[in-house]
Specification:
With 35 residues, the protein is an all-alpha fold. The chain has one domain. It has one helix and no strands. The chain is rod-shaped, with a radius of gyration of 15 Å.
Length: 35
């Protein structure tokens, strides 16, 4: 149980960066599409 929690905490920054880049790309795509 502790190992799973530790791995999740270690991977959290990676998922945060991934979703940040994904939403940034999605926002830019929608902006260019509607404009």
């Amino acid at each position: 149980m502790t190992n799973i929690m530790t791995s999740t905490v270690c991977l959290k920054p990676f998922f945060m960066a991934f979703f940040h880049g994904f939403f940034h790309f999605l926002h830019g795509f929608l902006s260019s599409f509607f404009l």
